[in-house]
Inverse folding.
């Protein structure tokens, strides 16, 4: 089955920059790209969620709500705007009660969000059903994402030296497969039944091979009524080839990035997908000329992010698929890839796609991630953790222990936050063994919560005895959202008595990411207070200068108060030339307002009084020039 038109979800402004440049693109850069995006007409633009709310506050000192609002205002409805949510965990790391979910989704939709892509790290349907319901009720579009993962490889005998030999050098009996096509399809069908209008196969680690993409996408297309989206990454080298396979097997929506933000640990570049679509007779539902304009400006955006770019000295070569002619041997690689894909020749397809990516200088496949079958971010976190502990020599052992920790923890998929929890626990296990201690002597609070059941139901039930060992209780205990306490919104007396969060959207940030939002909002209130104080100081200086007393001797003619009263208006200042009959000032006496007028044409030298001052009869009011 082949789709005649393929819709595109552009990830450049969210997942693209998050995967490659640590989510450091500032609002000014985003704003500069939006006019071209409006013209491009992507079906969907992913612009929010994921790490954006955290990073823009933490590193850029910007408002996540401003990011969403400005994109929405600039796009004028030309593309649907989407965000990524961790279901019950939203964009944070703990389960939230329904009231917090509703408040956040309501504010997001009011500020321009159209689609919320909702996933759960455990693929626990109970953790996403409330979000799907709320998004639909509030007028948004619920996109249910099923997280792809693989069964861990069998544990090998400990006697074999070396990580790869120990992990893959033997062939013990295969355990029962859990993550079959049927597993993912059933999760998708449950989400559709709950009201999801789009179903995404979310391959966060890039582990979907081309043949798995073909089989799973085919099943989803035949058994679902809603649109099917494929989200993958190129980290281990499958992303481009698997996307081509998904296109051939009837995919509705494909997630891509624009050239300078594609490939490597990000999703495939739309320009390469366009070249394949031309050969497959598939129309991309996007204005590729406008994509070219974005591409031109993205190069400067990438250069501005050089401090966070691991490939800044080895970027892809420029390529415009509408105007550049491919060398004959490269064009032949595209043809070969299509031929192999249609013949289900996975090896040939991968070989051709890797050669294409190599020609354009995209990063090579990460062989470690490919072999160990873990997300690249999880691996880098483990490296950093061991380095901090001065135990880098234990990396191989920690990597070998990941399958064991996953099995013990109920075969959880490796995606935020479970990837971090499992990776960290594997490191602790390696350290325990090095010190001669029993396994799980050292456990993190997050691992205990996972085993206790607070993150939800794991794909495979956890052994009650293991749960007792880790938590002290063999019974599963889900997180009790009724125990959630709203954070305080303190009054900052040192900053003029204002509240930390000045409105509902700021308070929602405080609920979601309390530590990050606290620091961000304090800086915001401090800046506002200092600006206000500076303005007051300037005003006071201006008034003081204006009110500075001139004690020089009186030499000119003086206008005196005809009777005592209170000055209520002064209409002239030093240097003014006045005409006969012009009202110079007004004073109140005997509950009556009285005008003091000029008797002849003169120039004001100085004014002796100020508004609200009470003067006596014959008190000097104004002196005129000699």
């Amino acid at each position: 089955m082949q789709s005649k038109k393929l819709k595109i979800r552009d990830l450049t402004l969210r997942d693209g920059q998050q995967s490659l440049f640590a989510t450091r693109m500032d609002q000014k850069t985003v704003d500069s790209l939006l006019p071209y995006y409006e013209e491009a007409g992507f079906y969907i633009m992913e612009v929010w969620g994921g790490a954006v709310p955290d990073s823009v506050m933490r590193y850029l000192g910007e408002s996540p709500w401003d990011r969403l609002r400005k994109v929405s205002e600039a796009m004028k409805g030309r593309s649907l705007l989407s965000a990524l949510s961790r279901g019950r965990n939203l964009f944070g790391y703990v389960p939230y009660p329904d009231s917090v979910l509703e408040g956040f989704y309501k504010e997001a939709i009011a500020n321009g969000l159209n689609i919320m892509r909702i996933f759960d790290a455990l693929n626990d349907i109970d953790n996403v059903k409330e979000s799907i319901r709320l998004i639909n009720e509030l007028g948004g579009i619920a996109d249910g994402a099923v997280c792809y993962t693989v069964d861990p490889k069998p544990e090998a005998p400990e006697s074999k030296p070396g990580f790869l030999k120990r992990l893959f050098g033997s062939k013990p009996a295969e355990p029962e497969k859990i993550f079959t096509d049927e597993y993912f399809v059933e999760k998708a069908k449950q989400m559709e039944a709950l009201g999801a209008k789009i179903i995404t196969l979310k391959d966060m680690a890039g582990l979907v091979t081309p043949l798995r993409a073909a089989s799973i996408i085919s099943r989803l297309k035949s058994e679902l009524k809603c649109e099917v989206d494929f989200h993958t990454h190129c980290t281990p080298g499958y992303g481009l080839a698997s996307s081509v396979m998904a296109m051939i097997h009837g995919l509705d929506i494909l997630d891509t990035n624009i050239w300078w933000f594609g490939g490597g640990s990000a999703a495939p570049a739309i320009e390469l997908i366009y070249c394949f679509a031309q050969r497959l007779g598939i129309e991309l539902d996007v204005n590729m000329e406008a994509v070219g304009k974005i591409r031109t400006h993205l190069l400067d955006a990438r250069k501005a992010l050089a401090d966070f770019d691991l490939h800044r000295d080895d970027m892809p070569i420029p390529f415009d698929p509408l105007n550049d002619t491919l060398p004959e041997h490269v064009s032949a690689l595209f043809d070969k890839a299509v031929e192999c894909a249609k013949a289900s020749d996975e090896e040939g397809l991968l070989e051709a796609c890797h050669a294409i990516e190599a020609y354009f200088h995209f990063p090579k496949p990460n062989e470690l991630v490919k072999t160990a079958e873990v997300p690249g971010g999880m691996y880098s976190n483990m490296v950093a953790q061991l380095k901090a502990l001065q135990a880098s020599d234990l990396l191989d052992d920690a990597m070998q222990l990941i399958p064991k920790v996953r099995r013990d923890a109920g075969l959880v998929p490796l995606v935020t936050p479970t990837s971090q929890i499992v990776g960290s626990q594997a490191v602790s296990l390696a350290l325990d063994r090095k010190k001669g201690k029993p396994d799980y002597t050292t456990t993190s609070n997050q691992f205990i919560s996972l085993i206790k059941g607070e993150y939800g139901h794991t794909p495979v039930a956890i052994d009650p005895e293991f749960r007792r060992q880790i938590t002290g209780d063999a019974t599963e205990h889900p997180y009790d959202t009724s125990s959630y306490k709203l954070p305080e919104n303190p009054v900052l007396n040192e900053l003029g008595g204002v509240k930390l969060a000045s409105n509902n959207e700021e308070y929602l940030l405080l609920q979601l990411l309390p530590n990050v939002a606290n620091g961000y909002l304090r800086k915001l209130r401090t800046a506002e207070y200092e600006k206000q104080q500076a303005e007051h100081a300037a005003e006071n200086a201006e008034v003081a200068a204006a009110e500075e007393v001139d004690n020089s001797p009186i030499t000119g003619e003086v206008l005196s108060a005809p009777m005592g009263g209170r000055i209520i208006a002064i209409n002239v200042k030093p240097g003014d030339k006045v005409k006969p009959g012009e009202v110079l000032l007004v004073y109140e006496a005997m509950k009556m307002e009285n005008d003091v007028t000029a008797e002849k044409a003169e120039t004001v030298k100085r004014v002796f009084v100020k508004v609200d001052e009470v003067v006596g009869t014959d008190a000097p009011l104004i002196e005129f020039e000699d």
